[in-house]
């Protein structure tokens, strides 16, 4: 088992190594205001043995390729996972392990990866800040002799190259280091935040009324400009099965221009335009969409303070009946980013904090770098999930619809049977008639 805990604090902060207390088995941290990443690496024998787990043969020559399949499920909370970790992974009466699992409920993201080469499971979580106003106050311990626990405390530093990230600070290996080791390192990174000067945030909303053909509007506070030459603006949407896009509608140049769109670059998953939600065979679909962007003078905007927005037309499938005649569906906010070509000869695989297999990287060249916009929901503690109210059949009224439908079908069947009987009777009567020839005198 290997554990790596990394704190990245604000460069303007007043943190120094004197606020660290080291012992043979732990590191004491006091009032540290910083982001926190935790990475736990487990081998298969350290996981609980479940009866329903099977070993899947893996082609070792392909383990570095992107996954072929993706699965999506909306989970508003990690509470169930936390309960599982506390009961199945954490040893009994291990309060520290239970507290670490509990902390996942407030994480910004949680990644669970499997490395086929080393046959290890890797759990990575990130917290943007401490849940306590005073910062992180805790004692980080090395719990088992076989465990290697690394603690890093870094701050951002100015990088020499625009595609690089640079950090400086201290690194501690518990039970090995007697004092914090000063460290500084830089590396090219495939993921960056959009520079503030280029416009770095966006808002996603559904203009009302939504109806059965809602429009997802992405609003940028200011006109945006690419961080470098050759960059293209994209958004990547994860659409649950209740939503779908009409690829034929998004193939019209005039329609795209009116919505500030350039075109669909990739679309996969459930794309049937007629299937109701309960017939859709997949969990949904994903779409990579290239967006238009203009400088203020190109867009005809009077000032640099004017908003810039794009509209993405979506459609709702026929949904199952619900009490009250309405139901709500959830749509996660899309990812918005610039995709830029990297310089030749740059290796993007040396980032110790890199996140891969996010779904959209495989749609670009491996040397592409991404500059991400920060989502800014309205209101404090706003959600990155948009809800749409959809009219459906009312369960309380559906019995009358069912009875009426059955009645109409029965009346139609009786009418058809009556017509068949009349035709049969007419044929039978015509056969009974005997036409005699006239007598010739």
Key terms:
6-stranded mixed β-sheet, 24 strands, 441 residues, alpha+beta
Descriptive report:
This protein is α+β, with helices and mostly antiparallel strands and 441 residues long. A hairpin with a 4-residue loop joins β5 and β6. The chain starts with a strand and ends in a 9-residue tail after the last helix.
Task: Tell me the layout of helices and strands.
Layout: E1 2-9, E2 20-22, E3 26-32, E4 34-42, H1 79-89, H2 95-102, E5 109-115, E6 120-127, E7 136-141, E8 148-157, E9 164-173, E10 181-188, E11 191-193, E12 201-205, E13 215-220, E14 232-240, E15 243-244, H3 253-258, E16 261-269, E17 284-291, H4 296-299, E18 308-313, E19 315-316, E20 326-332, E21 335-341, E22 368-372, E23 374-375, E24 385-391, H5 395-432
- What is the C-alpha radius of gyration, as a whole number of Å? 31 Å
CA-based shape? elongated
N-to-C CA distance: 122 Å
Unreliable sequence segments: 51-65, 299-304
Structural class: alpha+beta
- Strand tally is 24
Strand content: 25-35%
Helix content: 10-25%
- The side-by-side strand order for the widest beta sheet comes to 5-6-4-1-8-9-10
What is the makeup of the main sheet?
A: 7 strands, mixed
Number of helical segments with 4 or more residues:
5
Write the H/E string, N to C: EEEEHHEEEEEEEEEEEHEEHEEEEEEEH
Mean residue pLDDT: 82
């Amino acid at each position: 088992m290997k554990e790596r805990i990394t704190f990245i604090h604000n460069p303007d902060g007043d943190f120094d190594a004197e606020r660290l207390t080291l012992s043979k088995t732990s590191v004491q941290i006091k009032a540290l205001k910083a982001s926190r990443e935790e990475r736990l690496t487990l081998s298969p024998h350290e996981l609980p043995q479940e009866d329903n787990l099977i070993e899947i043969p893996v082609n070792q020559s392909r383990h570095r390729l992107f996954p072929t399949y993706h699965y999506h499920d909306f989970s508003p909370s990690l509470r169930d996972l936390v309960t599982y970790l506390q009961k199945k992974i954490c040893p009994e009466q291990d309060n520290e392990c239970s507290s670490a699992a509990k902390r996942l409920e407030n994480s910004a993201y949680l990644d669970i990866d499997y490395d086929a080469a080393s046959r290890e499971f890797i759990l990575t979580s990130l917290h943007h800040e401490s849940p306590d106003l005073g910062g992180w106050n805790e004692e980080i311990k090395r719990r088992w002799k076989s465990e290697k626990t690394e603690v890093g405390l870094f701050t951002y530093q100015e990088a020499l190259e625009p595609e690089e990230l640079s950090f400086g600070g201290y690194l501690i290996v518990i039970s090995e280091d007697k004092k914090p080791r000063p460290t500084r390192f830089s590396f090219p990174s495939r993921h960056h935040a959009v520079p503030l000067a280029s416009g770095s945030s966006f808002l996603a909303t559904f203009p009302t009324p939504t109806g059965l053909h809602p429009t997802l509007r992405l609003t940028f506070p200011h006109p945006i400009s690419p961080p470098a030459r050759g960059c293209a603006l994209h958004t990547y949407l994860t659409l649950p099965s209740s939503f779908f896009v009409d690829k034929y509608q998004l193939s019209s140049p005039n329609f795209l221009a009116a919505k500030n769109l350039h075109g669909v670059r990739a679309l996969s998953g459930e794309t049937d335009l007629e299937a109701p939600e309960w017939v859709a065979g997949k969990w949904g679909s994903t779409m990579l969409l290239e967006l238009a962007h203009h400088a203020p003078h190109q867009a005809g905007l009077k000032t640099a303070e004017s908003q810039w927005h794009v509209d993405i037309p979506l459609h709702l499938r026929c949904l199952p009946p619900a009490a009250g005649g309405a139901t709500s569906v959830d749509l996660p906010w899309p990812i918005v980013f610039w995709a830029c070509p990297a310089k030749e000869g740059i290796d993007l695989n040396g980032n110790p904090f890199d996140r891969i297999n996010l779904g959209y990287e495989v749609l670009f060249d491996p040397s592409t770098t991404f500059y991400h916009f920060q989502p800014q929901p309205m209101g404090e503690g706003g959600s990155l999930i948009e809800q749409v109210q959809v009219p459906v059949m009312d369960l309380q009224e559906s019995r009358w619809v069912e009875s009426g439908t059955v009645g109409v079908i029965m009346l139609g069947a009786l009418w058809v049977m009556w017509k068949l009987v009349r035709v049969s009777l007419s044929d039978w009567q015509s056969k009974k008639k005997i036409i005699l020839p006239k007598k010739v005198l």
